Amino acid sequence: MLYTFSQAHYSETELQRYLTEITENDAVVLWQDGVLLAVKYGEMFTQCKGQCFMLEQDVLARNLTILLPENNKVRSISLTDLVDLTAQYSPQIAL
User: Fold this and answer.
1) Which candidate, 52, 48, 94, places its Cα nearest to that of 76?
2) Contact at 8 Å (CB) between 33 and 6?
3) Which of 32, 41, 52, 60 has the greatest number of C-beta atoms within 10 Å?
């Protein structure tokens, strides 16, 4: 399953609930304001069992590169990579 997060307003409890449901067969994509979650709750993503990605153009647009933790589990991807992920993972959930 592909989980996409486009907003940054999730509470810690709500985000933790979503991330605990993710398995090693799933992927997470942070895009739009969702890339702020990698800064705000970076530690939670290190515990996520699935692969975690963030859209590079949204990170750059918000000037977040310097704020991301060094041991960041969330990898940057391009729009082309995002298209490949959407073809690879099904079903998809936008949160």
Assistant:
1) 52
2) yes
3) 52
Q: How far apart are CA 27 and CA 9, in angstroms?
A: 20
DSSP state of 64: -
Helices (H) and strands (E) in the chain, counts: 5, 5
- Please tell me the pTM assigned to this model: 0.91
Q: By three-state DSSP, how is residue 76 classified?
A: strand
Cα–Cα nearest to 52, from 44, 63, 40, 61:
44
Quick one: average pLDDT of 4-26? 94
Q: Please give the helix or strand (H or E) that residue 5 lies within, else none.
A: strand 2-5
Contact 28, 51 (CB under 8 A): yes
